[in-house]
Structure formats: C-alpha cells, structure tokens
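Feature request, filed as a ticket because there's no other form

It would be nice if the structure record came with a short human-readable summary line next to the tokens. Right now we just get the raw output. Example of a typical job, pasted below so the devs can see what we mean:
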Amino acid sequence: MTLVAPPRGDSAMSAQNSPRTTLPPTSPAAESPREPRRRLALLRATDVYAVLGAAAAALSITALLFTRLLPFSGGLGFTLIAYGLFLGLYALLVSFDEDGPAVRDRVAAVLAQSLGLLMLAALAFVVVYTLWEGRKALPHLNFYTQDMASAGPLDPLSAGGILHAITGTLEQIGIALVVTVPTGLLCAVFLNEVPGRFARFVRTIVEAMTALPSIVAGLFIYATAILTLGLDRSGLAAALALSVMMLPIIIRAADVVIRLVPGPLREAAYALGTSRWRTVWHVVLPTARSGLTTSVILGTARGIGETSPVLLTAGFTAVANTDPLSGPQISLPLATFEFIKSPEPTMIARGFGTAAVLMALVLLLFVAARVIGGRGPGRLTRRQEHRRVLASRRDAARFAARAEKQAGRQADEQAAKQIDSGSRASAPTRSAL
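Raw output as currently delivered:
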C-alpha cells in the first residue's frame, strides 16, 4: 500500500478534503528490539567485586607498610590504617563506573554496614567469651539450686550456687517494675496530653535524670530511706534505688513512642465525643503498645545490670534471703562482681557463669516483651477474637429479634388501620339505615 500525501496549501478546506495517511500493519519482525530488563536487586556483582578487591588491596598495602616500609606495630593501628585504605580504594573503584553522588552513597552505605558488623562482632565476642569462661560452672545443677552458705573459695564447682542471687534479682526487679511501670507510663501520658510549662519542666528533669550515675541513685536512697526513714538495708531499699535508675528511661522512651501516635486517631476519637482520658486508654495506649513494652524492657535492662546501688542499699550475703523487707540481699551483677574478685579459678568460673545466667534472663525478658507487645495496633489474640465473634453473634441475634419485633408491630398497626378504615366505611351505611 502506498502512502497518499495531502495536497499542499494552507486552506482548511483542502486539509479536510485530503485523504488520510494510512500506515501498513507492522509485523513482529519489524518491531524495535526490546530494552534489557532492569535489575532491581540492591546487591550487584560489581559491588561485591569492588568490596573484595578494596579489602584485599587494603590488607596487602597495610601489611607492606607495617612489615617493610614503616616502623609501625600494633593491632589497633593496623586495623585503623587498613580500614581507611579500604574506604579510599573502594571509593576509587566505584568512581570508575558511577558519578559523584553515587560514589558518596556507596561509601556511606559501606561505612554504616561495616560499623554495624563491628558492633555485632563485639556483642558476639562478649557473649561467646562469657559462655566459654563459664562453661565449667553452667552444667552443674547445684549452680542453680544452691547458695554459697556452705561453699567457700576452695570448694569445687559441685558445691554452692547462685540461688541467692537469682532470688534477689527477681524480687528486686519485680518490686521496681511495680513502682516504675504505672508511674513511668502515667508520666509519659501526662507529658504528651497535658502540655504546658510544668510539663516542659518535668521533661527537662527526666532528660537530666537519664544520665544520672548509678552510685548517686544508691546514695540518694541510702540517705533518704535508710538514714532518714530508718529502713533496713534490704531488697526493698535496693528496689527503690533501681526504680530511680529505671524511671527516667521508661518515661523518656514512652514519651517518644506516644508522640509517634498519629494525630488523626485522636481527632477521630474526639469527633465521636470521647473524652481525653478515654481516648488515651482506648486509642493512644493500644496503638503504642509495642513501643511501650519496649520502653519498659529498656528500663528493666538498665536496672537489672546495676551493681553499686544494690551494694549500698542491700549489702552482701551468701545466704538466700527471700524476704525483701529485712536483711541483706544480693543480686546477679553484685554476685558476679564478688566472684570475679577472687583469684581462685573456681570462683572466677562461677562469676562468668553468673554473668551468663544474667544475659539469659535479659534475653528472656526481651522475648517476653516481643510476645506481649509484638502485635501491631488492631491485631487481636485468639481469645480476643473468640470474644469478638461471640459478641457479634449476640449482636446479630439482638438485631434480628428487634427487627422481628418491629415487623410484628408494623403488622399490628396495619391491621388496626384496616379495621379502622373498615369501620369508617360502614358508618354511612348504618346512618342511611
């Protein structure tokens, strides 16, 4: 088919009368080649090659500098110089294929990821080293079921244990949580829901107390509760000192979490006529449940690892004391400190075993926090869903009964209207008769 061109001219009539230009249908073979599919993966082979090449070159150059060219020595210096050379060489390799912003982005990404790996390696080293040093004490069952009342520094690991420290830690943290959880969450709600000068003053005090040294908290409780009020050195006094340490952490973290609750949720609740505190109880706190649980666990992790407040307020004992109101009481961090001070290998093994038990307890607390507060806003447990289903069935039955009653009422009204209209129609006939 040939193409017919329109006649030349500027008039609109000639343009309207000219035939249209038609194109023949294109065959699949005549189509232009498709563009290659763009890969959306974040990790590419060139990035891996650049990282490996930069790392190998940095290690080689640093080894050459330390062994042949310069009088340097030391593992720390070797690591710092090798890391600096790695960043420079990686930027150079990336610049061959990318422009300036992409190079800066890649270098920043490698820097952040390497620092994250460094922190993870340090944490893994601490955990593995603690478990390895306490491997001799952890397999013994008496380590968890006995105290040190009948065991001395020269006794083997088959005698004595840390039952007194576990008991003291659980009681002290339990009392501290009873004090700090309602107080901290209520203070965080106050800081967000009742703004003003006093709220700003309280927030400033909380931020200042976040950096409070633990020894100061212990001295505060020792001076006020023990010397002034006459309270004995006991687990209760230690729990009060831990509460002073935990409270600002919980308030600060809960304040940040509650501030992240979307404002439209509050506005929707207020639009329905709900009061402020009912909105807080039914909207704000359930929405921020996961973050509030995390804030409580952060405060607990801060308090469970303190040593000096417990030493000042509860003293030291080798006997299990289950009464937190009287008598000295020890905790796991304080027991670890006392065990490690001894030069005997068995006591040092007990100290590292106690530290391992403390880490396991903190891990258990974090797992419990994820189970309790890990559900998102609006997600229900099976028991809550079952209660909602039963409530929905009761509502459906009530609505059906109400509709049936209303239908019967309408039928009665219609029957009454028909009777009334029939009586009115028969009235003229009776009057005519």
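Something like this underneath would help us a lot:
The longest helix spans residues 382-432.
Residues 1-16 have pLDDT under 50 and may be disordered.
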